[in-house]
Design brief:
23BDH; binds nicotinamide-adenine-dinucleotide; SDR; alpha/beta; oxidoreductase; binds S,3-hydroxybutan-2-one; diacetyl reductase [(S)-acetoin forming]
Length: about 260
């Protein structure tokens, strides 16, 4: 294995936090595989990154399919010969009162946020074991993995499950020198929060567009909402040798919102 040319996969990286994470890891010197289900946006991001001089390839797939997570890892290894970091970033949201949670919502959110993360951990870990190298797996959790939010019940439950799988995978995979951690962002202005705000406003006649986002953000002690680069900074650290002695942790990066 070539320690000069480390390779990272970032799922859900056509936009939002995943794109910022992929760009930061590229600047850290990683060869990057960007992955997303949104092919148009994915190709745009790949083109933009290539123009910036990053060593990047793209793979369109659905993280909720076990076989496609395996194919993603195989693709990375075919392109770059090895895998060092796998970031399970892809995720989806849903906003409803508890009494309106239905089968479709449960299936969609658990399939992508939870099953997708499990399949990603498995595919990456099997590759690290085959390579006989250390490896780092980093999952997208959330403040909602530490605290359960009204109107975000299913989403919060999926992020609690991600925290749980992060712990158990860290325990079981430690013997292979695989670190498994998670990042827990707070409130970042991505497409996800645009959708959450839009839905929350629909359910509350006292809210105007932008109010739900402002309400959540107003509790942040450092006085500003999260930028994608704040999240990328943490993922960069968790991907580095400096994080070698950290495993099983779901680390908050939220500007002072949830205290654990
Ligand atoms: N934005 C926030 O404030 C915030 C806070 C805490 C945690 N998070 C978590 O961070 C991660 C990224 O969030 P974001 O705000 O960038 O979201 P986003 O919606 O802006 O981007 C998510 C990306 O994932 C992709 N995706 C969705 N389903 C997919 C699938 N089945 N397979 C592959 N790709 C898929 C989307 O196409 C999109 O490009 C998510 O896991 C989210 O839960 C976000
Ligand atoms: C979207 C998210 O995870 C938090 C609730 O901001």
């Amino acid at each position: 294995m070539n320690s000069e040319n480390k390779v990272a996969i970032v799922t859900g990286s056509a936009g939002g936090l995943g794109k910022a994470i992929a760009e930061r890891l590229a600047n850290d010197g990683f060869n990057i595989v960007v992955q997303d289900i949104n092919n148009d946006l994915l190709l745009e991001t790949e083109k933009e990154f290539k123009e910036k001089g990053y060593n990047v390839v793209s793979f369109k797939s659905d993280v909720s399919k076990q076989k496609e997570q395996e194919e993603l890892v195989n693709f990375a290894v075919k392109e770059f010969n090895q895998l060092d970091v796998f970031v399970n970033n892809a995720g989806v949201d849903a906003v409803t009162p508890f009494l309106e949670i239905d089968e479709n919502q449960l299936n969609k959110l658990f399939n992508i946020n939870v099953f997708g993360t499990v399949y990603g951990i498995q595919a990456a870990a099997k590759q690290f074991i085959k390579q006989n190298t250390k490896g780092k797996i980093i999952n997208a959790c959330s403040i909602a993995g530490h605290e359960s939010y009204e109107m975000l019940g299913t989403y919060s439950a999926t992020k609690h499950a991600v925290r749980s799988y992060t712990q158990v995978a860290a325990k079981e995979l430690a013997k292979y020198k695989i670190n498994v951690n998670a990042y827990c962002p707070g409130v970042a202005k991505t497409k996800m929060w645009e959708r959450i705000d839009e839905e929350m406003v629909k359910y509350d006649e006292n809210l105007n567009p932008g109010d739900a986002f402002e309400e959540f953000s107003s509790a942040i002690k450092l006085g500003r909402y999260q930028e994608p680069k704040d999240v990328a900074n943490l993922v960069s650290f968790l991907s580095s040798e400096d994080a070698e002695y950290i495993t099983g942790q779901s680390i908050l990066t939220d500007g002072g919102l949830v205290y654990r």
